[in-house]
Design a protein that fits this description.
Elements: H1 6-22, E1 32-38, E2 43-48, E3 52-54, E4 61-66, E5 73-78, H2 79-87, E6 88-93, E7 97-103, E8 118-120, H3 121-129, H4 139-149, E9 159-160, E10 170-175, E11 186-193, E12 200-207, H5 215-227, E13 230-231, E14 244-246, H6 255-266, E15 275-278, E16 282-286, H7 291-311, E17 322-326, H8 330-337, E18 346-349, E19 354-357, H9 365-388, H10 396-405, E20 409-412, E21 415-418, H11 424-430, H12 437-441, H13 445-450, H14 453-468, H15 483-494, H16 497-505, H17 510-521, H18 524-532, H19 536-539
Parallel strand pairs: 14-15, 16-17, 17-19
Antiparallel strand pairs: 1-2, 2-13, 3-6, 4-5, 5-8, 6-7, 7-12, 9-10, 10-11, 11-12, 15-16, 18-19, 20-21
Helix pairs in contact: 7-9, 9-10, 10-14, 11-14, 15-16
Length: about 550
């Protein structure tokens, strides 16, 4: 994952704390916003001010079952997760809270899949097709649906609101939590249309517990929003209406590819401002308004994919679509990825199979575009390696080493260079210290992230730069440049990342290697010479 400079982040945090002590923060609150019209569902309502449409999360893969005889792989999911995604209409988010809307169309999936509710996609679809269209749900069924969908432990019996919605053809029920957190209240409503009895809409408003919120004023906006809901016959809209741009429409796709593509498009069908662009190997999903950035990233995705494949060739066709999600605002990115990834500028999420890129709000448009492209190079390699190795776990030195190495890609026409990056100075400092390369090779991801993460990223970059380029210019005869390729071949065959490291490094004298490694990184002349070494003889094959 892309590392944002930690010292800069800490400085911002300290400044914010200092200002809070001088100027006490005024309470934030929800305000009524613009009208949203979701034609595909026949719903119109007033949203909350500054709540932006957000993509519905892609299903999270739990694991896979492999048939040992045929090699056929079935990806496994939580039946609850698939059920929830199926019924989502839309999500709107801000730093104050979020709004979620869903339609009650399927009963909670009980006793499907294994004992933990884990199921493959085909089995889930089979269960779904067997469910009859149900108009009248019992009170217990609705209570259970609401509790499970919004992940709440318990609810009180719903209160029927006496004030009806305009145009007075709806019944509104208000659900209360038995143990309501005053810092993070959740307001849940059930709206039942008398004109369209099959249409039952669940609406939730959640306030963020990290924000100083005026509850009373926020509730006024929530009830105003609820009262604004109106219903009309749904319109069947094509998935690609005003959202699609496609390059190379004639490419033949596997059935698996088509299914994964449809999941991605459905993910944004009701999200205003979100569009998608298909290229030969990727689908970009974005709410970026800067078309130049979208175009540049789409071109660079394809170009760097060709570079990755030159270094580490594919052994079989990739069946799933490669997804890249681009955000207009940093806030939208953080709301989507969650608090645990607030330190990142982008990430590859293998469980949801998407590459997610954040803008850098404090940069100029030009510099932001360049920064996003660099993140694409880095995270794009993680994505490529995941698919190229058939989702095998890889060693952190190899995975992050190559990802940071490819940050230095610079395309010049039909050729490319891999340049030094801003990690150079830190790497030169590390070279003056004791380095235990062998221990680093067997470092697990948790240790990599939780120890000195900046140092570890730098060492991974420095190691891979040396293997690919530095080893080519040092005077001593060596086979160091063969190590990454040997690792990749063994990983493809064995799916065992430790075995791959053993085999790739088994003939290396580590004492001698560390001497050569440090000697290179303390020699400016060799470093400059290595930067000039290029791979275009490989790229042109």
């Amino acid at each position: 994952m892309k590392n944002i400079r930690l010292n800069f982040c800490i400085f911002i945090l300290l400044m914010a704390l200092a200002l809070n002590n001088v100027f006490p923060a005024s309470k934030s609150y929800l305000k009524i916003g613009k009208t949203e019209n979701i034609e595909s569902e026949g719903i119109q309502f007033k949203s909350i001010d500054d709540f932006n449409p957000s993509p519905i999360p892609l299903p999270e893969r739990i694991g896979a079952l492999v048939n040992r005889q045929t090699g056929e792989k079935k990806e496994m999911y939580s039946s609850e997760d698939l059920w929830r995604i199926d019924q989502f209409i839309g999500i709107w988010q801000s730093n104050i809270g979020n709004l979620k809307i869903a339609k009650i169309s399927l009963p909670y999936p009980e006793e499907i899949g294994d004992k933990d509710g884990i199921i493959d996609m085909d089995s889930y679809k089979e269960w779904k097709e067997k469910q009859p269209l149900k108009i009248n749900f019992t009170a217990d069924e609705i209570n259970k649906w609401v509790r499970k969908f919004f992940d709440l432990e318990s609810l009180e019996n719903p209160e029927i609101l006496t004030r009806q919605l305009s145009p007075r053809d709806c019944r509104v029920s208000f659900f209360k939590q038995k143990s309501r957190d005053p810092k993070s209240p959740v307001y849940i409503f059930l709206i039942e249309s008398q004109k369209f009895p099959a249409l039952k809409i669940a609406v939730s408003y959640t306030l963020n517990d990290t924000i100083n919120i005026n509850i009373e004023k926020s509730e006024d906006a929530i009830f105003t929003s609820i009262k604004s809901f109106t219903f009309s016959p749904p319109k069947k809209l094509p998935l690609n209406q005003s959202k699609q741009q496609t390059i190379n429409k004639n490419i033949k796709r596997s059935p698996e590819y088509i299914i994964s593509r449809e999941q991605v498009i459905n993910n944004i069908k009701n999200a205003k401002g979100w569009e998608y662009l298909e290229t030969e190997n990727f689908i970009l999903v974005y709410n970026l308004r800067n078309s130049k950035t979208v175009k540049e990233i789409s071109q660079n995705l394809e170009s760097c994919r060709a570079v990755f494949e030159t270094f580490y060739p594919l052994k079989k066709e990739l069946k799933a679509v490669s997804v890249c999600r681009l955000f207009e605002k940093r806030e939208d990115y953080l709301n989507y990825v969650g608090k645990e990834y607030e330190w990142t500028g982008g990430l590859w999420n293998p469980s949801r199979k998407e590459l997610i890129i954040s803008p850098i709000d404090w940069m100029t448009k030009s510099n932001n575009r360049k920064a996003m492209v660099k993140v694409v190079f880095h995270e794009g390699f993680h994505q490529y390696l995941h698919y190229a190795t058939d989702e095998a776990i890889s060693s952190i030195w190899f995975n992050e080493g190559n990802a940071t190495f490819f940050e230095g890609i610079n395309f010049k026409g039909n050729q490319f260079e891999i340049e030094l990056t801003d990690r150079l100075n830190e790497m030169k400092k590390l070279a003056s210290l004791k380095i235990d390369i062998k221990s680093f090779l067997y470092m697990e991801q948790d240790e990599f992230v939780k120890s000195d993460i900046s140092k570890n990223y730098t060492l991974a970059w420095g190691l891979m730069f040396f293997l690919h380029k530095g080893s080519k210019v040092i005077k001593k005869e060596n086979n160091y440049s063969e190590i990454p390729y040997k690792y990749y071949e063994v990983l493809l065959e064995s799916k065992n990342y430790k075995k791959a490291t053993d085999e790739a490094w088994k003939n290396v004298d580590f004492q001698k290697f560390e001497e050569d490694f440090k000697a290179f990184w303390t020699n400016d002349s060799l470093i400059k010479k290595a930067e000039r070494y290029n791979f275009n003889h490989l790229f042109s094959k």
